[in-house]
Amino acid sequence: MGKDIIAVLIGGLIGTAMRVGADTVFSLLIPGNFTAIMTINALGSFMLGALVAGLWSRKSAKSWVQAGIGTGLLGSFTTLSGIALAGLTTGNAFATMYLIFMSLLTSLFAAWFGLWLGGLTVRKAAR
């Protein structure tokens, strides 16, 4: 239990730093606050899906590694509150709901794709 908490704290620090760096880079490359946040959220969701299906399905996966990478690193890398705040700056409730919906849809698709791709690697390794 203690290893899990420490791993989440360390992963959270690293994920937050990665989030700030990615947000800065994507904001410069992709104009518009919404697309940068949605892209980062989709990327984090894809990575989490791929890890869950590919690596964490193995019995040798340690719980503290899963907690540190999943909850800590990727949990702090992705954010729903960021897209909600960006949507609220539009001043339009329908635009905010649309942005949140599109972000969730994009992230769910990315997570599904990561699960599918990670599952492929496990099936190929089992052969």
Please outline what is shown here.
With 127 residues, this protein is mainly alpha-helical. The protein is built from 5 helices and no strands.
Give structural attributes:
globular; 127 residues; mainly alpha; 5 helices
What would you say this structure looks like, in words?
With 127 residues, this protein is an all-alpha fold. The protein has helices at residues 2-29, 33-54, 63-77, 81-88, 93-126. Helix 2 (33-54) runs parallel beside helix 5. The protein is globular. The model has no long low-confidence stretch (mean pLDDT 87).
Distance between termini?
35 Å
Average pLDDT taken over every residue: 87
Global outline: globular
Main beta sheet: none
Fraction of residues in β-strands: under 5%
Proportion of residues in helical segments: over 70%
Structural class: mainly alpha
- The total count of strands amounts to 0
Assembly state (oligomeric): single chain
Low-confidence region ranges: none
Order of helices and strands: HHHHH
Number of helices: 5
> How large is the radius of gyration?
16 Å
Any chance you could write out the topology, listing elements then pairs?
Elements: H1 2-29, H2 33-54, H3 63-77, H4 81-88, H5 93-126
Helix pairs in contact: 1-2, 1-3, 2-3, 2-4, 2-5, 4-5
